[in-house]
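lol so apparently i was supposed to do this last week
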Amino acid sequence: MYFYYNIKNMKDKNFYIENYGCQMNISDSDIITSILLKNGFTQSKNLDEANIILLNACSIREKAELTLKKRLEQLKFYKKNKKIWIGITGCFSKQIKKIFLEKKIVDFFVSPDSYREIHNFINYSIIGKKYFFYDSIKKKNETYADINIIKQKNKKITTFLSITRGCDNMCTFCIVPFTRGRERSTDPNSIIKECERLYQNGYKEIILLGQNVDSYLWIYNKKNINQNQKNVVDFSNLLDLLAKKNPMMRIRFSTSNPHDMSNKVLEVISKHKNICKHIHLPVQSGSNKILKLMNRKYTREKYLFLVKQIKNIIPECSISHDIISGFCNENEEDHQDTINLMKEIKYNYGYMFSYSPRPGTYAYRKLKDNVPKHIKKKRLQEIIDLQRKHSFYRMQEHLGKVEEVLIEGESKKNNQYWYGRNTQNLIVVFPKKHLNIGDLVHVKIKNTTSATLIGDICI
Ligand code: SAH
Ligand code: F3S
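anyway here it is w/ FE3-S4 cluster bound
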């Protein structure tokens, strides 16, 4: 009785959500928002108007966690002047939880597997229940398959859809298996339905998300497991089904783990025009010694062979990477292995990081973070500089070509230009003319930088 009385008396439960980190978090923000809106909360785009502030956190690298800490310190002053509730969702470490509970800045923590109940947790906090550990109520099979996601009206035409959650790979540097739990796949029927619904709502491109999309697996009849039967849907089957059912929807996906990527997947990508020709294939290091220490389950040779297969089966495919520099025990020779692997592949683009130990991971517990900071920095800079060269080189390959581009919005640098992406996930800008956001157009590439293709519409 007391509980309902208080909740009803709280005039409006107005939340503001701030997002940190990866695409999965952006997609999860939509899930959280949808659950709250369906349960009587309102959303504010303005921090000052809200009485519930949610930070959808990332703790993948030390830097991300520092950003979060700084933000929380800022909010501490905010909290002094106004009655607000602060909650952390997403990937947060035990340390963050400990520090900010002690400081009494954060009122509640909700882990990625507990969002279905987030409205209740907030309500408990509002009535002053000191029950902080909502992250321990994890639903290990949660995929949010039946949540009809309410997308914000922001004229976007591309959106994320998660097809797997969690990760089982246990790379020794990575905190994700600890913050997001075991891997599980979403029912393909739900993915297909959601994809159709999104298309009907004006979306023209969908990005399928998973820490390791290639290990997507759905088994219809668990008693009768047989890889050759149709009761098993793997990633190649899922892509094939989606591409056929929604021929007008562009499909992208991320991330592919080199260990699990199969030729079957490559063949499906090559077969369908609406599956984009880009693979994000994090390598992390070019040294077999380091790959082993990282518990990545492939070798440099296997990775290079896979890249060859990709280029054989899908010649126009772009490839991007993630690389970590300065992992435990990395010496100059290992670093040169990475540099040489990059030279061999000449990636289209990549995301490059210097290693930061994450509490709880194997590397944090068992390996020494023994590469001095200035060396990590120097190696990282070499990797970044080399990638810039390769990106520029790869961009030149597009000069003079006519490419299909989906218009996503106005160019940030010039409001007379549109920007969009070609099938290889490269940004293309071109004069607007009479076209609109969401149009799929042909653009002739006339110029490039290392990050952008510049062209003109072909009429
Ligand atoms: N499965 C996802 C991984 C998400 S983490 C994927 O393959 O994309 C994204 C990237 O962050 C990783 O690929 C890795 O390059 C980087 N990363 C993860 N943990 C890190 C750490 N402790 N230090 C530095 N970079 C890290
Ligand atoms: Fe992390 Fe490796 Fe999984 S990088 S998310 S443990 S594939």
